[in-house]
């Protein structure tokens, strides 16, 4: 008994890469088990209440099944809590071979995983990846919109009313004012580039007086 206690203390205090790798493997195995159990419960509920839109909506089963960990956890926890809170729904599931104890254990195992550091790590990684992809998509969309707007302004230079119809400006006067602004800005850039080029040119050598 004493040796077992020592082993447990040593195991808990072991923060080596090998020990953490083992802990993460155990977490992954438990997560797989919880996912498999909940999939069975939620699939059964979808079949039992097929066509019963109010009940499916109440249980959150009208939504798409989430795969990412955080939304999946929220969806699954909501399902278990709602089932266990409604006797008539619970009784239906029991009739089809799903016991209340099995549902309670499913919720308990899910809560246990949610407090795991590897659960937090996984959700943080998924969030960061999703945020990066979202920002990347917004960046590409913004780039495309800017290019589209520039193309429209050039193509419709003599027809400012088209620019207004496309919603890029509120009035023809605004379009003309923007055209003047763009022309001034373009000339300013040309003059700045010319001045910079003149500064970079080497000074002309004067011919020696004969």
Uncertain spans, ≥5 residues at pLDDT below 50?
1-10
Number of helices: 9
For the sheet with most strands, the description reads: none
- Report the structural category: mainly alpha
Helix and strand run? HHHHHHHHH
Mean pLDDT: 79
Gap between N and C termini: 112 Å
- Summarize the amount of helix as a percent range: over 70%
Gyration radius, rounded: 33 Å
Strand content: under 5%
Which overall shape is indicated by the principal axes computed on the Cα atoms? elongated
Domains (count): 2
Strand elements, count? 0
Topology at a glance:
Layout: H1 2-13, H2 17-48, H3 53-58, H4 69-85, H5 87-95, H6 100-114, H7 117-155, H8 160-165, H9 172-200
Helix pairs in contact: 2-6, 4-6
Describe the structure.
The structure is a single chain. The chain is mainly α and 210 residues long. It has 2 domains: 102 residues, no CATH class; 68 residues, no CATH class. Helix content is 79%, strand content 0%. It is built from 9 helices and no strands. Helix 2 packs antiparallel against helix 6 and helix 4 runs antiparallel to helix 6. It starts with a helix and ends in a 10-residue tail after the last helix.
List keywords for this structure.
210 residues
Summarize the structure.
The chain is mainly alpha-helical. The chain is built from 9 helices and no strands.
């Amino acid at each position: 008994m004493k040796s077992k206690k020592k082993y447990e203390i040593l195991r808990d205090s072991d923060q080596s890469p090998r020990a953490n790798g083992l802990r993460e493997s155990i977490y992954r195995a438990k997560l797989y088990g919880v996912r498999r159990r909940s999939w069975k419960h939620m699939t059964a509920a979808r079949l039992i209440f097929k066509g019963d839109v109010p009940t499916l909506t109440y249980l959150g089963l009208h939504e798409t099944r989430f795969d990412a960990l955080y939304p999946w956890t929220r969806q699954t926890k909501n399902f278990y809590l709602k089932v266990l809170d409604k006797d008539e729904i619970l009784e239906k599931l029991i009739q089809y071979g799903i016991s209340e104890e099995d549902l309670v254990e499913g919720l308990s195992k899910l809560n246990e995983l949610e407090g795991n550091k590897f659960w937090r790590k996984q959700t943080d990684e998924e969030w960061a990846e999703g945020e990066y992809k979202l920002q990347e998509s917004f960046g590409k969309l913004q780039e495309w919109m800017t290019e589209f707007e520039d193309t429209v302004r050039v193509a419709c230079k003599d027809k400012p009313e088209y620019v207004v119809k496309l919603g890029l400006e509120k009035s023809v006067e605004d379009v003309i004012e923007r055209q003047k602004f763009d022309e001034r800005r373009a000339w300013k850039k040309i003059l700045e580039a010319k001045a910079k080029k003149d500064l970079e040119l080497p000074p002309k050598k004067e011919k020696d007086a004969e």
